[in-house]
């Protein structure tokens, strides 16, 4: 028989994939072994509770047996109905066992007097509720297996009601169990062992409760998953992708487990699809026996460490924009969600963390360039933790595919893909092939220039929406260019000149007020004196107050704006020391580098290189500064080599000051490196900055009053 007729309101199909033969066979074997072992226990111990485990396991055996049949004919109604009913109701028998365990645990502990209700009633109440959910879910699943669309709709709603009742029953049950443990613990604390139970008995009932909690949690996760699955509908992501059945259903019934998360003490999180609710089934192609459907790059992966291996039957390949996800893809996405994303969150902000941890991986499922970028970054990060030539090679393959897919996306930027294109542009900074320490100075300078050019591309992308409501985008917190309005610089004994001040410009266009105008309260643009370390300030003054004789400096107009862009970074460091504002300003500095300045960097103009050396020295102090990493020292050494050859004393001195910051950082850490910047700064003291910032902020509050 074929699928029932669909309607514009409801698209219902038995399967939206070909059921995995290997997955069903292995699950069947494991459940069959569990059934045989528990049946042996039943005959040996004559414990009636065990029979419910046997029945539940046999339901699973029958269900996965039916899925084996569906592998060969996924349009057969009989097999579909059998697997749907048995896999749905099988765990209810496991739940019945748990319910009966609580009553026996209460009697074992001798705690009938502290229990809210008599021990025997726990079994009667909760098993009755379990039977009710069993009947409701079984009825609903049976009705869904009809040839009438209206009945299929009604059956699905009945199943949802049964699952909701089961979840509610389990929650009430767990509350009752916790209440009993609390009351019993209080009683035990005030009662001698001789009047209640022996110490060994006390240990026994507690162990029983902990086992009960563990298994209950797994079954509750499974029930909640099933409730969400059916609530999303037959065309939803969960029900239309087989891997979810094995991860959340088979594993959460405390039978077969993948062990990947448990060995790492991690929560099991696999990539959901943010657009799954609206995606049509035709967007996913069922796997075939053709060789072209071999999991992407899977043959290049070496899982030599069995303790870290994901069993291939547990997670059947899922589908994403890039095609079929391999088991390594799942592992790397999991690694990104639990570890790698933290290296990108340069500020402590819950929204930023949520975007990196949740929004980005969800969006990657439907945008191949972002998916490949995440996989490459996660593979590189994983390789640092557990070096592997195969994973290192895989990271390079993913990186190449990122650039290929991203190039295509740039040719057709739309409202639908703009945010993911923008986010991917940020990640590209971490994907640049980095030189090795033993590589030449020229190779390090080339890498540095490529990094800056990549940042220029990100600036161009952001400019497409910068004045057109970019602050309304979901990903805006990731590209926000400042955290606070800074106090004006301290008054110093410098020659007063408008040339030594930052330029006045519209909000959103200058380093002092870099974000879109609507993000500010009524702060008129203002001009502040440039705030730079003495050596850099001397170099800056030589540009804005050039000698009246001699050749004209053709590079002046390209260099001066970069001094202006560095000034707020030093000002933030002075007033607020090393904090989130400093991190963000370091990260977005490159967005103020214009093409004419980058041309000077490429030509290795000494003053341009010196400014970049200072940025690298400051970036090295950023926690988790992945865009520069461990290459700060070698890049600055390469710059120093070029600058010294120029013979310009002021430029060499300014560059040496940056080198000194790096040396202090390597010896004593970021705090002392930051402090060293202000040691020879006349009129500026490192320790007084925060106090002056507080005084200024207090004055601002008084002005508002």
UniProtKB/TrEMBL annotation:
<dbReference type="InterPro" id="IPR007568">
    <property type="entry name" value="RTA1"/>
</dbReference>
<dbReference type="GO" id="GO:0016020">
    <property type="term" value="C:membrane"/>
</dbReference>
<dbReference type="GO" id="GO:0000981">
    <property type="term" value="F:DNA-binding transcription factor activity, RNA polymerase II-specific"/>
</dbReference>
<keyword id="KW-0539">Nucleus</keyword>
<feature type="transmembrane region" description="Helical">
    <location>
        <begin position="49"/>
        <end position="68"/>
    </location>
</feature>
<feature type="region of interest" description="Disordered">
    <location>
        <begin position="272"/>
        <end position="297"/>
    </location>
</feature>
<dbReference type="Pfam" id="PF11951">
    <property type="entry name" value="Fungal_trans_2"/>
</dbReference>
<feature type="transmembrane region" description="Helical">
    <location>
        <begin position="582"/>
        <end position="601"/>
    </location>
</feature>
<dbReference type="GO" id="GO:0008270">
    <property type="term" value="F:zinc ion binding"/>
</dbReference>
<feature type="transmembrane region" description="Helical">
    <location>
        <begin position="122"/>
        <end position="146"/>
    </location>
</feature>
<feature type="transmembrane region" description="Helical">
    <location>
        <begin position="20"/>
        <end position="37"/>
    </location>
</feature>
<feature type="compositionally biased region" description="Low complexity">
    <location>
        <begin position="272"/>
        <end position="293"/>
    </location>
</feature>
<feature type="transmembrane region" description="Helical">
    <location>
        <begin position="608"/>
        <end position="628"/>
    </location>
</feature>
<feature type="transmembrane region" description="Helical">
    <location>
        <begin position="559"/>
        <end position="576"/>
    </location>
</feature>
<feature type="transmembrane region" description="Helical">
    <location>
        <begin position="158"/>
        <end position="178"/>
    </location>
</feature>
<protein>
    <submittedName>
        <fullName>Uncharacterized protein</fullName>
    </submittedName>
</protein>
<keyword id="KW-0812">Transmembrane</keyword>
<dbReference type="InterPro" id="IPR021858">
    <property type="entry name" value="Fun_TF"/>
</dbReference>
<dbReference type="Pfam" id="PF04479">
    <property type="entry name" value="RTA1"/>
</dbReference>
<keyword id="KW-1133">Transmembrane helix</keyword>
<feature type="transmembrane region" description="Helical">
    <location>
        <begin position="80"/>
        <end position="102"/>
    </location>
</feature>
<dbReference type="InterPro" id="IPR001138">
    <property type="entry name" value="Zn2Cys6_DnaBD"/>
</dbReference>
<keyword id="KW-0472">Membrane</keyword>
């Amino acid at each position: 028989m074929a699928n029932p007729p669909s309607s514009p309101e409801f698209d219902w199909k038995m399967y939206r994939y070909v059921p995995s033969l290997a997955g069903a066979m292995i699950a069947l074997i494991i459940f069959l072994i569990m059934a045989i072992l528990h049946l042996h226990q039943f005959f040996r111990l004559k414990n009636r509770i065990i029979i419910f485990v046997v029945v539940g396991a046999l339901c699973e055996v029958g269900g996965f047996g039916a899925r084996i049949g569906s592998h060969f004919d996924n349009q057969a109604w009989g097999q579909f109905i059998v697997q749907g009913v048995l896999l749905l109701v099988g765990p209810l028998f496991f739940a019945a066992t748990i319910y009966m365990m609580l009553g026996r645990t209460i009697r074992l502990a001798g705690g009938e007097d502290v229990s809210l209700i008599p021990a025997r009633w726990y079994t009667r109440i909760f098993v009755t509720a379990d039977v009710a959910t069993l009947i409701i879910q079984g009825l609903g699943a049976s009705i869904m297996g009809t040839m009438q669309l209206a009945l299929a709709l009604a059956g699905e709603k009945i199943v949802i009601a049964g699952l909701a009742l089961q979840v509610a029953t389990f929650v009430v049950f767990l509350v009752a169990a916790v209440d009993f443990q609390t009351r019993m613990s209080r009683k035990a604390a005030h009662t001698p062992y001789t009047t209640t139970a022996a110490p060994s008995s006390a240990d026994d009932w507690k162990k029983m409760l902990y086992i009960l909690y563990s298994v209950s949690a797994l079954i509750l996760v499974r029930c909640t998953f099933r409730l969400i699955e059916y609530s999303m509908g037959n065309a939803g992501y969960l029900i239309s992708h087989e891997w979810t059945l094995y991860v959340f259903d088979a594993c959460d019934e405390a039978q077969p487990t993948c062990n990947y998360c448990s060995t790492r003490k991690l929560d099991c999180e696999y990539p959901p699809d943010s657009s799954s609710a609206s995606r049509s089934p035709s967007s996913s192609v069922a796997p075939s026996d053709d060789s072209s459907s071999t999991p992407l790059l899977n043959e290049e992966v070496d899982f030599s460490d069995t303790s870290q291996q994901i069993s291939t039957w547990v997670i059947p390949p899922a589908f994403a924009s890039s095609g079929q996800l391999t088991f390594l893809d799942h592992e790397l996405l999991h690694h990104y969600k639990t570890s790698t994303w933290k290296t990108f969150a340069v500020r402590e902000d819950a929204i930023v963390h949520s975007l990196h941890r949740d929004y980005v991986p969800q969006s990657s499922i439907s945008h191949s360039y972002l998916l490949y970028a995440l996989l490459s970054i996660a593979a590189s990060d994983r390789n640092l933790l557990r070096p592997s030539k195969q994973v290192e090679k895989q990271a390079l393959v993913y990186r190449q595919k990122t650039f290929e897919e991203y190039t295509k996306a740039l040719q057709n930027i739309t409202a639908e893909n703009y945010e993911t294109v923008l986010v991917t542009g940020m990640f590209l900074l971490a994907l640049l092939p980095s030189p090795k320490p033993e590589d030449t100075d020229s190779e390090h300078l080339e890498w540095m220039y490529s990094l800056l050019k990549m940042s220029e591309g990100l600036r161009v992308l952001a400019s497409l929406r910068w004045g057109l409501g970019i602050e309304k985008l979901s990903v805006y917190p990731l590209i926000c260019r400042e955290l606070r309005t800074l106090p004006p610089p301290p008054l110093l004994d410098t020659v007063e000149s408008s040339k030594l001040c930052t330029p006045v410009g519209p909000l959103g266009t200058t380093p002092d007020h870099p974000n879109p105008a609507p993000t500010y309260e009524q702060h008129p643009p203002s001009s502040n004196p440039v705030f730079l370390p003495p050596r850099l300030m001397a170099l800056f003054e030589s540009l804005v107050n050039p000698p009246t004789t001699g050749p004209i400096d053709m590079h002046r107009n390209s260099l001066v704006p970069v001094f202006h862009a560095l000034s707020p970074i030093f000002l933030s460091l002075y007033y607020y020391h090393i904090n989130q504002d400093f991190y963000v300003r370091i990260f977005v500095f490159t967005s103020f580098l214009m093409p004419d300045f980058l041309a000077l960097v490429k030509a290795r103009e000494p003053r341009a290189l010196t400014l970049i050396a200072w940025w690298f020295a400051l970036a090295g102090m950023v926690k988790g500064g992945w865009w520069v990493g461990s290459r700060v020292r070698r890049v600055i050494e390469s710059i120093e080599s070029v600058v010294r050859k120029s013979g310009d004393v002021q430029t060499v001195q300014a560059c040496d000051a940056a080198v000194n910051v790096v040396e202090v950082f390597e010896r004593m850490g970021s705090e002392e490196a930051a402090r060293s910047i202000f040691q020879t700064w006349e009129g500026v003291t490192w320790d007084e900055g925060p106090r002056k910032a507080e005084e200024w902020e207090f004055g601002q509050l008084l002005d508002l009053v």
